[in-house]
Amino acid sequence: xxxxxxxxxxxxxxxxxxxxxxxxxxxxxxxxxxxxxxxxxxxxxxxxxxxxxxxxxxxxxxxxxxxxxxxxxxxxxxxxxxxxxxxxxxxxxxxxxxxxxxxxxxxxxxxxxxxxxxxxxxxxxxxxxxxxxxxxxxxxxxxxxxxxxxxxxxxxxxxxxxxxxxxxxxxx
Length: 172
Description:
Layout: H1 3-8, H2 11-21, H3 26-49, E1 51-57, H4 64-73, E2 77-79, H5 87-99, E3 105-110, H6 117-126, E4 132-137, H7 149-163
Parallel strand pairs: 1-3, 1-4, 2-3
C-alpha cells in the first residue's frame, strides 16, 4: 500500500503505538535488521539500474516485520496480510515516485499478503511505461543470525540492577 493509504488506515499510528507498548523481542529486531541490510543493498542496485524491486519478507499471518522493514528501509509501498490493496494503487504510488525524481521503486511484501510479491512483480513487469521489476525473496535468511547488539545491551542494562534486589525488595 502507498504511504497515503497506510495513513488513511491509521497504520503508522498503530505501528508506533505497538512499538512503544512493548519491549522489542531480540529475534524480531534481528529479523528486521536482516531485512534492512538486504533492502539497503537492493535499493542501491534499484537506483543504479532504475528498476522496481519487490522484496518478500517473512510474515505469513502478520505484516509487522514487513511494515517495520518498509518504514525503516524507505520503501515506497508495503503489502501486508491485514490489508488488500489493488495493484492500480501501487502503480499510482509508483508513478508519483517516478514523477518526484526517484530512480527506483521499492515494495516490501509480507509472504502472506493477499496481493503477493509475485503478483505485484508480474503486474509491474506487465504494465507499459514503468520500470522493469525484480523479485527478491528473503525467506529463511531472516531466521537466526546475531541479535541486535543494542537490544541485548539494553536488556542487560535494564536487568542488572534488578538482579541485585533481594526477593523481599521485589515489587511482586
